[in-house]
């Protein structure tokens, strides 16, 4: 019996059972036309279908703002055309019932409780069979926490009103009502949502631990949302942390504002401007933020027997990181930096650092924020070499430098996920973990990600297919292309060496590169001392003629750098295409072809010790614009006015 993946749509009925509102319509057995052969091998078959909602209603009785959510289910039978009544492979309506059982067996309710029974005319062996897709199978499921006890957490609660009084810019006061004002909180929640109850599995053994520290209590009123809770292991490997699957609530309310988390590169550059630092972190930081009793009704935990209500911030709620980060920014304002629950107090000298530490200590005491030393050191100790947010800093060196935390680098390089990915057969979850580490490593080591075009392309395709997929889809084994493995292996060698990255600002090269492209031509001009000293132009022919305009603009910049720029230092580049400016600034693009082209450009610049400094200019000020529209280059050197 062939087993094929297809798409189904579900809806919460508010009753004791959940039934699909639409049967599977068709499985045509063909891969998407835009997928090359290697993608068909890695991801299997895809199906297009149209959702239907009873009575034409989309909202009103769902778990959240989106009362419909897609998932991947199993359809039994071969790729046969749909018959009368929406039959698939000769099974028809049973395919929908099979979908419900599949969801229940995999434990991926996705905000819905599913209790469908198995069809009478399908054997139980059908449900345990592995999908026979080329290059795709389901790995055995396992419990990540393996019954680990909850980690001990603090019972301390922050004085959020006192913290808001310290907020000089008002960013924390903007989100404070989400903790203390039930009316403001309810105003951001869809009034038609609520009534959702998703039972948690295996959480009964943690009930007493949650009560004892004041994190949660038994619900004496019906929660607006009773959601699924679960635990994940902490770094020590002996305890676990509590996480709430708050997707029903997140979908039912407006999203949070900007988190105000600094960019990691800006974070590193700011730290390296100083000589001394003190670091600490908040003890069970999220649990230190109390929630108003009336707001707790929105944070119910579905439990066997009696539900529970959370009384503190929880991991899983979309607003929680924003609230925590903005609170941390208040504590370190004008003193240093914060990364969620990590605090870094900085100083250009030892005396300045100690003064800043004293001010920070007063603020934590006034707001009743409990902190502890990071890494087993002494609290309030000022030092010059330390590890913070996965980065090792050495501020005592003649030139401040940084690199990856050696322990993190070792875990990533020698981890089981890396071994599986490099072997070519890994689960989607393993690849995602390895790719996340690759993104972090390239940011810390200042490696342009365009050098890993195949890795970025494969990750983008896989990510697009996992959007809306069921939880068990992350445990499907995929084939990793050889080009992706080669690039990942090269990055692995670099991370294994873990070189120090030395800061510094390149001197200006004294010239400006102007580049532009039209639908059929490109031009590049080099300006020095207020005059045009050199230039090139050309036309797009062959396959390049039909390329996207952004790729043509990137081509013009590449030609200008390779043919015109020779002086080492910071090379200012002026382009009237914002996409190209952004790609060069961050070192990567969403296009595979653009990444390959940008990689060659940056490598050529590195050989000449050139640092590209892109900048956007309006088309009316672009000096190279006339030479992409038929004008011939002037005789060099020429005044700037010659281009207008």
What overall form do the CA principal axes indicate? globular
Q: Could you describe the largest sheet, including whether it forms a barrel?
A: 6 strands, mixed
Average pLDDT reading: 79
Alpha-carbon distance between the termini? 71 Å
The total of helices stands at 20
Q: What's the SSE blueprint?
A:
Elements lengths: L2 E9 L25 H7 L24 E9 L16 H14 L18 H4 L8 E2 L21 H7 L4 H5 L1 H4 L1 H6 L8 E2 L9 H6 L3 E3 L6 E9 L6 E6 L1 H6 L11 H8 L4 E7 L17 E2 L6 E3 L9 H12 L4 E4 L2 E6 L2 H17 L4 E3 L11 E4 L2 E4 L6 E4 L1 H9 L1 H8 L1 E3 H17 L8 H14 L9 E4 L2 H16 L3 E2 L5 E10 L3 E8 L2 E9 L9 H16 L4 E7 L2 H9 L5 H16 L2 E7 L21 E2 L5
Parallel strand pairs: 4-6, 6-9, 20-23, 23-24
Antiparallel strand pairs: 1-2, 3-18, 5-10, 6-7, 8-12, 8-13, 9-10, 11-12, 14-15, 15-16, 16-19, 17-18, 20-21, 21-22, 22-25
Helix pairs in contact: 13-17, 14-15, 16-17, 16-20, 18-20
Any overview of this molecule?
- With 644 residues, the chain is an alpha+beta fold.
- Helices cover 31% and strands 20% of the residues.
- Strands 4, 5, 6, 7, 9 and 10 form a six-stranded mixed sheet that branches. A six-stranded mixed sheet has the order 24-23-20-21-22-25. Strands 11-12-8-13 form a four-stranded antiparallel sheet, with helices on both faces.
- The longest helix is centred in the middle third of the chain and has 17 residues, at 350-366.
- The radius of gyration is 29 Å and the shape is globular.
- The N and C termini lie far apart (71 Å).
- The model is unreliable at 1-144 (pLDDT under 50).
